[in-house]
Design a protein that fits this description.
3-oxoacyl-ACP synthase, alpha+beta, single chain, 2 domains, 150 residues, 3 helices
Length: 150
């Protein structure tokens, strides 16, 4: 059980690291392109190119900041802790799907099973918060019943 949590947690960490690496690479490439852009007789072209590279750098910096926020959120989770109620760090098995309440990282696969990594602040995360096995809730016209919480 804790091994499953550890595997899901590690996949979330890998997801965040990939986002951080991609953003950093984008920043590095935009800065390199900006340095290589030389002033030509068309001064406006040079300034436009530099402005576009700055926008690209800013966009990647924003993505890096968001990825860092996700990493901070993950650092608040202890995969060794078991809960009997749905909260951050819980694996919630319902009649319709399996969820890992952590960060919004999409579908994660472990041993052939798919788990949706969701944020505790997501609509479904908010609906599940504090519920226990046997509890039911509705979201978007679907009736969920919590079968177990790990």
């Amino acid at each position: 059980m804790n091994q499953l949590k550890q595997l899901l947690y590690q996949q979330c960490l890998d997801y965040v690291q990939q986002r951080m690496d991609a953003a950093q690479q984008g920043i590095d490439e935009a800065q390199q392109a900006s340095k290589e852009d030389t002033k030509s007789s068309a001064g406006d072209k040079y300034e436009t190119g530099r402005a576009m590279m700055q926008q690209e750098t800013d966009r990647n910096m924003a993505q890096l900041t968001e990825a860092n926020k996700l990493k901070v959120a993950l650092n608040q989770i202890n995969p060794a802790v078991n809960n009997d109620r749905a909260e951050t760090g819980s694996i919630v098995i319902t009649n319709l799907a399996k969820f890992y309440i952590s960060i919004s990282a999409g579908a994660l696969s472990v041993n052939g099973d798919t788990y949706m990594a969701i944020s505790p602040a997501s609509p479904i995360g908010l609906k599940m918060k504090g519920l226990k096995a046997g509890d039911e809730f509705n979201l978007n016209g679907k009736a969920y019943k919590i079968e177990s919480i790990l």
